[in-house]
Amino acid sequence: MKLQAHGRGHNGRKFRETCETVVVNSHGALILLKHEIDDGEMLVLTHPETMEEQECRVVYLGEPAERQRVGVEFLTPAPRFWGLDLEEGAPSGDAN
């Protein structure tokens, strides 16, 4: 899914870009960003259809690449943000 992300990059400058999700859940997402960003930085994601905004914090940075994998966590859970039926407490993948 494509969405808008805006915040401050590694260089301290504000940015806004269209990014893409890799994985989504009610607590956040793994997105692909072109801008370099710092761990712990705040971002605002905007859903393209509803224009709903969700504040989130960067909690994971993948290896730098053309588009870096960035894990973000919503400040408050938002299971309806993605327009999917994401039940609270539903299994999210591997059970180790």
Report on the structure:
With 96 residues, the protein is mostly beta strands. Strand 4 and strand 5 (53-61) form a beta hairpin. The protein has no helices and six strands.
Helix-strand string:
EEEEEE
Strand content: over 45%
Q: What are the low-pLDDT stretches, counting only 5+ consecutive residues below 50?
A: 89-96
What can be said about the biggest beta sheet?
Answer: 6 strands, antiparallel, barrel
Structural class: mainly beta
Total of helices: 0
Query: Helix fraction?
Result: under 10%
Task: Give, in spatial order, the strands making up the sheet with the most strands.
Answer: 1-2-3-6-5-4
Average pLDDT, to the nearest integer? 88
Radius of gyration: 13 Å
Shape: globular
Would you count the extended β strands for me?
6
Termini gap? 28 Å
Write the layout of secondary structure elements.
Elements: E1 2-8, E2 14-25, E3 28-33, E4 42-46, E5 53-61, E6 68-74
Antiparallel strand pairs: 1-2, 1-4, 2-3, 3-6, 4-5, 5-6
Keywords:
96 residues; 0% helix; mainly beta; 6-stranded antiparallel barrel
